[in-house]
Specification:
Number of strands of chain B: 1
Structural class of chain B: mainly alpha
Number of strands of chain A: 5
Oligomer: heterodimer
Distance between the termini of chain A: 76 Å
Number of helices of chain A: 31
Strand order of the largest sheet of chain A: 1-2
Helix content of chain B: 55-70%
Largest sheet of chain A: 2 strands, antiparallel
Amino acid sequence: MMRKQQTFSRGLSDKVRKSKAAPEIQKNPFEVKINRKKFDVLGRKSKHDVGLPGVSRSRAIQKRKDTLLKEFRLKDKNNTFIDRRFGEYDSKLTPEEKILQRFTLERQRTQDRKDMYNLNEEEELTHYGQSLAEMEKMTDVIDSDSDSEEKGLLSAELTATHFGGGGGLLRKKSAGDEEEEHKPRSRQELIEELIFKSKQEKRERQTQKEEAQELTEKLDQEWKSIQNLLAHKTPKAERTDETDKPKLDQYDMMVRELGFEMKAQPSEKLKSAEELAREERQRLQTLEADRLKRMMGDAEEDAVQTNTHVSADDMNDGFILDGDDRKTLAYKDGKWNIEGEEEEKEDEDGDEEGGEEEDEDDEDDAEGEDDEEEEGEDDEEDDADEDHCDLQSDEGSEDEDGQGAEEEQLCAEEPPAVSEEQKKAAQEAARAELPYTFPAPESYSDLKQLLQGHGSEQQRLILDRTLKCNHPSLSAGNKAKLQKLFGFLLEYVGDLATQNPPDLRTVSALIPQICGLCQMFPEAACKAVQTLLSDSGHSMEETLEVKGRAPMPDLDMLVLLKITALLFPSSDFRHPVTTPAFLFLSQALTRCAVVSLEDVCKGLVLCCLALEYVSLSQRIFPELLNFLLGLLHLTVSDKHNMGTAVCVCVCDLHREILDAIPEKPSQHAPLVFKKKKPIPLKLFTPKIVLDYGKKRGNTKEEKERERLKHKYKREFKGALREIRKDTRFLAREKLSDVMSRDAERKRKVKELYGSLATQEGEWKALKRKNRK
Amino acid sequence: MAPSTDSNVKDENSQVSYKKDINTKTGRILQNKKHSNDIFDVIEYLQSEKDKEIIFATNACKRVFCQLFYRGDLYVGDLPQEEELMSGDRSAEEKYRIFMRHRYNNCVELLLENMGHEAFQVKEASLCALMKFVEAEGKHPLQNLDLIEHYIFPRELLRTLVEHLLSTEEDMSLLISRFQEFLEMDDVRYYVMSSVRDNIYRVMGRNKKAVIPVYQNNVYTLLSNINVPSQGSKMKHFLVKQAYRPEEWKAGKLKEHKRAFEQMWLLFLKFKLPSSMYKKILVILHESIMPQMSDPTLLIDFLSAAYDIGGAISLLALNGLFILIHKHNLDYPDFYKKLYSLLDPSIFHVKYRARFFHLVNIFLSSTHLPAYLVAAFVKRFARLSLTAPPTALLILLPFICNLIRRHPSCRVLIHRPSAAEEPCDDPYVIEEEDPAQCHALESSLWEIKTLQKHYHPDVAKAAMKINEPLTEQEEEISEVLELSTFELMERDLKAERKTIPLEFDTATELLKSPREVLGVHFSLE
């Protein structure tokens, strides 16, 4: 209301200003107010340079008197709306009852209104306020057009007969008139004719369509024959276009066929071996860089900043009691590795060995020794006693023992190389025997059936073929199947490892397939490994809680941990699989009881795994040290039991460790906080901004926004002003009301006093008269 | 087939028959005094081979003697010998009573024996029956006492019962937990406490103060089941109601209860205990023993002895000591020195790690501790952290940071800008027992710097904090105190990750990867 008023009043004042009706007012200098301009802008017309405040005020007051005052006078004198609907405010009635009652009332009313005895009159039934009778008529028309193929396209005749409108139809009708003149036909005949015509039309359309179909089929066949020649698929739209066209000339088809014929396309140049190698290298480089980035994790910036020799120091300070220079070298090695292109493999090998030495140098060496020794034991694990006898027999021949171990190792590594040809032959044989396609196993038992009874190479082949047959690109369901297959495979591997004797060769043979699957479905693989880890972690936790100690994890778990290291990067700062795996390792190394030689062996395998996990990232693994120390303590306590033989071994070991430990303890620089960027002093020179004034929005929307904002602000202010004026006006009116009422009262009182005075006067006069 | 069913039938028959037999006999005993000799048969069943028969007979005895108690058919006063029964000139009624009293004594003896039976049901039934007798004797005392002088309670019966309950050969913990129900009653509790005290004194004295694990375990189970109510006004739940001046009865007074409780425990703790028992007691000491004692400072001998034992027991004794120091104004010399020497790598692996760190956090929360002491603790913790598992590290690192926050003078440990950047030997002496002599303040926390390369990301991040000036706000460590490795594992397992990075160079064999370590030392087969 206010706004309207305001605009209205402004319009009024404008009118007043512009109208020539009151020139004497406009000329009167007391009435005119000139709005002073701050800047004179050339070419701008201003509407409001001259105002007539008196006029506009009187107008506004008049306006208020007409509207606001009237409303005020009528305030609290309004009519009220009474809801007389039946039972509207009756809470006792349920809605259904209410509706029923109302309905009956309504019926009664309509009944009453009409003539009671008029039986013919039926009331009109409605649905959604529309007459049902009407609707029935409408649907009739629509129903007649039941042919779905026509998709609502009505033939001209049909529309003409049904609706009888349109210019052309009129003409036709007139033609019909002419015919009618020839031989008058009954309506029946007309309808029959109509039906016949429409049927004929339909038939024609059908045949046409069939023809088109045939043609498209033919085209399809031809297309298929040339399809494999084509380098790329034609866009789908084109093809559909073709089929849609009803008439196809032989010529057209020829032209199209020619058009589809494969053009010689520029193929990519065959890459030379060097180029391929370079690309591969590049790829590996980026991947390696990526890995390093992940390894740094959140500490990335720190690493970048403290890449000086201090940080490198620190890295190895943690444990290693010497070898600052060596460490930094190794670190450089890591970097070098990425840039060094040719000898990546060799380098990595070197790195690995270097890392092994540096990472936990002395301890690790000890561990290495220990390992070898233990492995010697491990090989004859079954008869531990005999083993000890062995040890006793070759007193002090520690070197020999080591050699023996190495030899065994060599033996272990050799067989695959030797049997390369055999393997080939076996593969051939297997290829001949095995079928070429395999269904993807739906359950674990399926997989077991599939693989059991075959040699490891054959199993690998079977898996390979299964993977190929069920490649996700071949069918939609394959993806899920293969994802499940990964879980089954892991289970199978676990089974193989828990068998007695464990079939680790097969496990090893299956590794490429597992890796392949993992590369295909990282999420599923991650989930599968995670569940296995979490299950065994949980069971270990439970046994720990119940018994206070837990057995060492079984071989299947060790194999799983190893496979985890093969599949996922253990060097990441945080990784959904390897971080839990780390924790599992830590838990196993700290909480599991070592009660037998087998446990010792398992523990050492775990140590190797732990070392492998951290070998690239060069992290520290305190549990590893703890465990090895514990083992050393065990051997020392053994010394008393076993006699001199072990004692000598231990002494040897001890000497070696002592050799490895440097004389001087490691040194540490005192810690200092990282240098912060100095906070600049507050300056007093003025801040200079090159862009002048307020920045206007550049885009159209921004400008529009600004404009609207501005407008809104002005309107808001105007509305406020108006409201204030309204209230002031009302107050004034109220005051004047009160004043007038008071004046009236005073007047009346005066009158009364006057009349009383005169009465009194008269009475006194009368009295005086009487006395006299 | 046939014989087995036969035997089954027989079994059933015998079952039915013994039930019938006992029922008819008890009925007859109660009906007529003529049939009182049948009681022998019923009592005989108490020595039966079959558990069910014993239980049934026990219940029957319970019924019979309770009834007799009620009727007053048991002889009251000093009981004459059975042989003298005939000689004296007594009325038939009196003879009957004496006879029944003797049977009652027999029955009680057998029931006490049955408390050492193999089957738990038998033990339980015997215990219940005996407690019923205790109640009945309380109501109808068998001693001819001057009622005005004494409060009536069958102390003797309860004493023998407790004696059997605290067996030196058998673990009675199940039965004792059943007995707990009766300990709810204030008078039973009071008299049990005093009987236990006598019992301990006697048994331990007999054994020349050597360790008797089974007995001590039983005693511990019983003692730990005793709970003195916190308010004296609640002492209204009695097995035996006293007619005469109940408000002056000792068993109804909280003070007396507390005293009895205290004396019982102190006596128990006075003797040498197995180390597992030490742990058990210390675990519950601060919660369920100390608040119920009238003067907890009396425990100081026990606590300081436990504190001197070392290892986990010392850790646990800390809690009790803390309460004594904190609430009872105990002055423990060299407390911090002792605490300092307690810190060794085992603290990360014991079960009570959370409790220990909670307490140490409290001990070191004072800002009035000297800087050298706090620095020594910090340095010690830092050194130990090099061997700690990740869960402990997640407690330890924020804890160390908090300590440095509280004591700004220890900031030199992580920030010593004045010193030259040359590496030098760590002046800290880990072997030194005295925190004042270990030169911790001159050292630096290079251990934490090392842990920045820890394999676990959370630990590494926590260690990263010392690179920059610490924030004012202390970190809350109470949430991580109970963290287990598996929970830590689950954090990563449950976390949603968009991409899962994979190892890019795929392996061809199990023991062939670019960074093979396992394959170097182990082979397949």
